[in-house]
Amino acid sequence: MEHGESPSNAEADLQVRSGMRNLRDWNGRAATVFILAAAAVGARPAAQQRSAAQPTPFVQLEKTRFATNERVFFWIGIDAPAYMLIPDSFYDSCQVTIVRPDGTRRVDKSSQPVDGPRGRSWRGGHGLGSEVPQLGRYTIIFECGGHTSAPRSFVVEDLAVLNQIAGEFLYSSPLALDSPDATATLVVRNGSNEVIRFPHLGGPMGLVWMKLDKMRGDRWSSSFPIPETVLLEAAGIGRSVLAPDTFTWKLVDEVPTVTLQPGESFELRLPVAEITSQRSRHAPPGDYAVEMTTTLQVLVGAPSGAYASYSPLRIDVRSTATGTFGAR
């Protein structure tokens, strides 16, 4: 084709197809380079994020309203990616800061629970212990390894209904700790105008502890949970397949539950000799201070009633007596 002449249709078509083929070849190479570059760029942030990930302390509240005469309870813990092994040094400076309503502070040292896998995420219970709660707002912060949780707050209020719900352990007298006739009976009385519910003893929501302290002579003491089999047999119920930490309205029909109408009471008689059988072989004869404790998680009223936001109420039951092992 001479200069100035227009290409034929066939020639023009050939030129266009050749140009398109070259463009496709270039696009393919460019796309390959782009994909490889994108993969490299994408890998760097993922690796950077993985290396930058840190264990995170947290505070978790089951509820934000407590009563003055119940046990204040909350969870603390460390959240970490599944691939991360938290070093022991991370726990060297762990502490829980509790800011009271009057502005004073209490600092509790903390460490990883001994019953969990070391170096992994965990959650454990914490609270005010034996401290009498103040009315008003509390703020909780958990610090560990130079990292600080988000603050969490709850309020403590005066709730009259709790004064109308009472529990205690009544011991047989005289209390011979190794006698088959010795008993300790949990009694719960509902003096309120509301229906109350709480899980049967046994399992994580109904632990019972016994403490024995020799009163004279050589010192000897022991503190231990009452076997679940003893609690369940005394109640005449089977073991639940569920093992929740907190009693909620959703669990009322799922786990063995005690329901008390206004004015009703509940009794559970426990055989003391079965409880102490593993300890009596090592305990020297003599008089002992005996203490039994449990915490009842109580739902009051109805799921949408006036006390719903307080539930579960954690009511501590603690009773002492003097008992004897063997000959005096």
What is shown here, in short?
The protein has helices spanning 9-52, 228-235, 272-280; strands spanning 56-60, 65-67, 73-79, 95-99, 105-109, 122-127, 136-144, 147-148, 152-157, 165-171, 175-176, 183-190, 196-199, 208-214, 221-225, 257-260, 265-271, 286-300, 313-325.
Radius of gyration: 33 Å
| Largest sheet data | 7 strands, mixed
Quickly count the helices.
3
* Uncertain segments: 1-41
| Mean pLDDT metric | 84
Secondary-structure blueprint:
Blueprint: H1 9-52, E1 56-60, E2 65-67, E3 73-79, E4 95-99, E5 105-109, E6 122-127, E7 136-144, E8 147-148, E9 152-157, E10 165-171, E11 175-176, E12 183-190, E13 196-199, E14 208-214, E15 221-225, H2 228-235, E16 257-260, E17 265-271, H3 272-280, E18 286-300, E19 313-325
Parallel strand pairs: 2-9, 11-19
Antiparallel strand pairs: 1-3, 3-6, 4-5, 4-7, 7-8, 7-9, 10-12, 12-17, 13-16, 13-18, 14-15, 14-18, 18-19
